[in-house]
Amino acid sequence: MAESNSSTERFASFYLTGIPGYENGNHFIPIPLCVCYLIGTVGNYTILHIIHTDKSLHQPMYYSLAMLSLTDMGMSFSTLPTVLKIFWFDVREIEVNACVVQMYFIHTFSLMESAVLLAMAFDRYVAICDPLRYSSKLTPQRIIYIGVFIVIRCSIVLTVILVRIPTFSFCHSHVLSQSFCLHQEVIQLACDDISFNILYGLFVVAFYWGVDSLGILLSYAFILHSVLGIASQRGKLKALNTCASHICAVLILYVPMIGLSLVHRFAKHSSPLVHITMANIYLLVPPVCNPIIYSIKTKQIRQGFLRILAPKRVGFAHT
Question: How far from each other are the two terminal CA atoms of the chain, in whole angstroms?
Fold first, then answer.
């Protein structure tokens, strides 16, 4: 009997909460979430389509933007299945193995997003600080190598801790406060020793997020130093304007990520709505905002959007 109970605890399912208030019949709550998923998916797919079909955009900068759009779509699709199951079909149960798979994709695509932003920071550094050698340093082949390296770098690191989760016994609770699985929340429900998962998680944060953010800061330190050396005010503004979209993309990823980490560490007993809101902002804001930012700040992408929305008008304008 004890063996059976242990087995039940070890392979138990989790129950996803969703959003407080939705259970009481407030079915308008999921509408903003669905709109965000739709905007993020359509926006990033459109950017990929524009870059693929416009041969003038087959350049390192736009290849990096395509990688960013792919990771944004990956982040959206990682959470989409359980969100739809909860809000459309009221299915809240998720098996441990399925939860682990979702955790893997959520955290892996988050790491990839950070790494892609670092690659884009290096692209801006070369374009501004060494423009004459830009085309020789950042060839399309090297961008592909960078993309492959990012995938390999980010896809294997989390397996070390995630494969341990199905072996844990979960006896504290089986209820998760989110509509998707996050590693830092799931391990808090385990009755086994989770010290390795915590320490390894801190290592991943320090070595991946820390190195990426440091690389981005150093790139912009060199960029700022180079921009200050430009004589004309117009030249300075033009150089900084080429970085505006990337700076916004960095902020909308790192600020919610830091906020979510602080909430998990220092506000464990705060309202569940705070945790849910921060997690959704962290995972939904970058995929939704990045296409909007790049369509506004990047002329070629903006023209591509206009060609799709009003092809005849744009064609007439060019003639």
Answer: 80
Pairing of strands 13-16, 175-176: parallel
Sign of the CA dihedral 176, 180, 185, 186? positive
Instruction: Report the alpha-carbon distance of residue 147 to residue 188 in Å, rounded.
Output: 34
pLDDT, position 50: 94
Exposure on the CB side of residue 230, measured as CA atoms within 13 A: 15
| 166: number of Cβ within 10 Å | 13
Model pLDDT for residues 56-75, shown as the tens digit of each residue: 899 999 999 999 999 999 99
pLDDT at position 221 is 95
Closest CA to 109 of 229, 299, 287: 287
Read off φ and ψ for residue 163, nearest 5 degrees.
-70, -15
Query: 122-159, pLDDT tens digit by residue?
Result: 999 999 998 889 988 999 889 999 999 999 999 999 99
Q: Per-residue DSSP letters for 73-135?
A: HHHHHHHHHHHHHHHHH---EEEHHHHHHHHHHHHHHHHHHHHHHHHHHHHHHHHHHSGGGHH
Which residue type does 278 have? M
- Cβ contact 15:186 at 8 Å: no
DSSP category for residue 62: H
Question: Does residue 140 contact residue 160 with C-beta atoms inside 8 Å?
Answer: no
CB atoms under 10 Å from CB of 238, counted, come to 12
Dist. CA 99–CA 83, nearest whole Å: 13
pLDDT band at 23 (very low <50, low <70, confident <90, very high): low
- What is the side-by-side order of every strand in the sheet holding 93-95? 93-95, 13-16, 175-176
19-24: average pLDDT: 63
